[in-house]
Structures are given as C-alpha cells and as structure tokens.
C-alpha cells in the first residue's frame, strides 16, 4: 500500500535556519533541525516509510506550522496536533515519556529511564532521545543531565538553550558535553 508523506518548510525569526516538517495522514512524523537538509528528510522517509511518496503540501501541514509558530511566538505551551512515530518499541516509549514533560520543566535521562520501566537504560534513553523524529513537539530539549548540565542534543546545545529559554527555564548549567553526558 502506497503512503503519502506531505512536507513543507518552516521558518521563524527565533530559528537560525529552516526546518522541514513532514506528516502522514495520521500525524506529524518528522521535523528536521536547521542544520539538516531536505535530503536528510528524504533519506529518513525512504528508510522509515519506504513505500511513501514525498509530496510538498503546505496546506496539509498548516496545522503543524501554526502550532510551531504559536510556540515560537510564546503563545502556545502545549501541542495538540497528532503525531505518527516511527521507531522501536523502546524508542516510542521514551518519546511518549518525553511528551509528558510540561512546558518550562525538565527531566533527567535517569528520570525518563525510570519512567519507561528500566532505570538502568540511561544511555539507551539518551540514544532514543537523539533519534526523536519530531523534536520540539515531542520535547527532547527538556531532558538535561542530573546535575542540570545541558547535554548532548542533535539540534546542538545552542538550540537546546534557545528552546529552554523560550520556555522560561533557566536552571541549567552550560557546562555540558555535546554527546553522552547523562
């Protein structure tokens, strides 16, 4: 069965670049970071939904663009759009746990590991967090180190800081390693 994946680009003054957003008929399935190209989106779709046609359709993506705009404008604290997650059972459990972190709050990787039922899976949580296909809407930026240090982030630590600051969260330490400091 052939699937359609609709995409458009998204820009906002608070973003340093363009995001590509994509959705199936079920919901948003992918958001890229400003440093990621359209080819990153294409490769992801080919890998995760190999029978899909990638179709540019800003109208179909308007609800997602609107909620992202409202978020970056500071008028939206929760997302209501549906999502369509493609990942392993463990990854989707992590992503669902991320989605429960309230606006302006953070959790540690250990907290998420415990929430998914495996307190020893801290590094696996970090890996799943980094593979989150719909950042911002599924707020992987709200996960920081137990010591309140910013830690590895696929969007870059500067972007993580921008998103946390946008949400009014300032109780973090900038001393964080780009990768694998949980």
Automatic annotation (TrEMBL):
CDD domains registered for this protein in UniProt: ATase
EC number: 2.1.1.63
Keyword Iron among record annotations: no
UniProt GO molecular function: methylated-DNA-[protein]-cysteine S-methyltransferase activity
GO biological processes: methylation
Record SUPFAM superfamilies: Methylated DNA-protein cysteine methyltransferase domain, Methylated DNA-protein cysteine methyltransferase, C-terminal domain
Active site, renumbered: 140
Domain Methylguanine DNA methyltransferase ribonuclease-like positions: 17-85
Predominant location: cytoplasm
Record field: catalytic activity: a 6-O-methyl-2'-deoxyguanosine in DNA + L-cysteinyl-[protein] = S-methyl-L-cysteinyl-[protein] + a 2'-deoxyguanosine in DNA; a 4-O-methyl-thymidine in DNA + L-cysteinyl-[protein] = a thymidine in DNA + S-methyl-L-cysteinyl-[protein]
Domain Methylated-DNA-[protein]-cysteine S-methyltransferase DNA binding stretches: 90-168
Cellular location(s): Cytoplasm
InterPro entries associated with the record: MethylDNA_cys_MeTrfase_AS (IPR001497), MethylDNA_cys_MeTrfase_DNA-bd (IPR014048), MethylDNA_cys_MeTrfase_DNAb (IPR036217), MethylG_MeTrfase_N (IPR008332), MGMT (IPR023546), MGMT_N_sf (IPR036631), WH-like_DNA-bd_sf (IPR036388)
Entry keywords, A to Z: Cytoplasm, DNA damage, DNA repair, Methyltransferase, Transferase
Highest rank taxon of the organism: Bacteria
Signal peptide: none
Family listed: Belongs to the MGMT family.
General remark: This enzyme catalyzes only one turnover and therefore is not strictly catalytic. According to one definition, an enzyme is a biocatalyst that acts repeatedly and over many reaction cycles.
Physiological role: Involved in the cellular defense against the biological effects of O6-methylguanine (O6-MeG) and O4-methylthymine (O4-MeT) in DNA. Repairs the methylated nucleobase in DNA by stoichiometrically transferring the methyl group to a cysteine residue in the enzyme. This is a suicide reaction: the enzyme is irreversibly inactivated.
Protein name: Methylated-DNA--protein-cysteine methyltransferase
Organism for this UniProt entry: Ectobacillus antri
């Amino acid at each position: 069965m052939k699937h359609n994946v609709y995409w458009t680009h998204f820009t906002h003054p608070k973003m340093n670049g363009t995001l590509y957003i994509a959705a199936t008929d079920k919901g948003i399935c992918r958001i890229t970071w400003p440093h990621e190209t359209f080819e990153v989106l294409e490769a992801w779709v080919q890998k995760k939904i190999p029978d899909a046609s990638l179709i540019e359709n800003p109208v179909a993506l308007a609800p997602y663009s609107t909620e992202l705009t409202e978020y970056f404008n500071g008028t939206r604290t929760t997302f209501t759009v549906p999502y369509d997650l493609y990942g392993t059972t463990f990854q989707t459990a992590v992503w669902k746990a991320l989605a429960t972190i309230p606006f302006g709050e953070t959790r540690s990787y250990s907290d998420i590991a415990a929430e998914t039922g495996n307190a020893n899976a801290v590094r696996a949580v970090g890996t799943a967090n980094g593979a989150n296909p719909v950042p911002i809407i599924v707020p992987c930026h709200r996960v920081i180190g137990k010591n309140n240090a910013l830690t590895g982030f696929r969007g870059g630590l500067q972007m993580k800081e921008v998103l946390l600051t946008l949400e009014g969260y300032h109780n973090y330490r900038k001393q964080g390693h780009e990768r694998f400091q949980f």
